[in-house]
Amino acid sequence: MGTLVTVITPTYNSQKFIRQTYESLFKQSYKEWEWIVVDDCSNDDTLKILETISLLDIRVRVYSNTVNSGAAVSRNKAIEVAKGDFIAFLDSDDMWLDTKLETQLKFMMANDVAFSYMPYQVVNEFGNKVGARSVPSRLNYTDLLKKPSIGCLTAMYSVKFLGKRYMPRIRKRQDLGLWLSILKTIDYAYAVDYELAQYRVHSGSISSNKISAAQFTWNLYRNVEKMG
User: Fold this and answer.
1) pLDDT tens-digit map of 154-185
2) Domain range for residue 49?
3) How far apart are CA 48 and CA 191, in angstroms?
4) What is the CATH number for 164?
5) Tally of structural domains, the chain
6) Distance between CA atoms of 55 and 46, rounded to whole angstroms?
């Protein structure tokens, strides 16, 4: 058995897109992965869809929260039970292109990289590309504070180098909180220079309200990072 990658997905009322998210994972050229999905009390068919998928693919493990707790709690629950040598993140409405895992893993292992990320495509609810997000070739803690530019769907860290690292228990921007926490202990995160992930923008997506996102970022800086 090769190097195992744990892919972590929190879900809430994701029946519209969750099959496409899984299909993008199923089609990966790199096959040594496990998918841990934590459902946050969905009231649609998300859980039913996931349970069907898990019966057909033994690499899929599905868990449920007993009360709606937010993405940080869901992701942390998945990290706790993760068995992988690397941990990657894929939200329930996003997708990866077929060589994403293979390309990123090769880059990290060849260069002894503890934490990496990628540029990514922006797609609409029909999966059509409407934009792209470029990223710098490397980032340190200060760089990331100035410009949060790591897309959660592209982030991957090495458990061997970093141990299991968890997200702060805040409702939004908890992914940025984790990246900052990691960059307090290593010098840089490095970019894999390929656009191999697709971030879906739609009316229900977490970051559709930019003013609200700015408020949550401020909360992270003030209450988690303890900045003045």
Assistant:
1) 999 999 999 999 999 877 788 999 999 999 99
2) 5-224
3) 36
4) 3.90.550.10
5) 1
6) 15
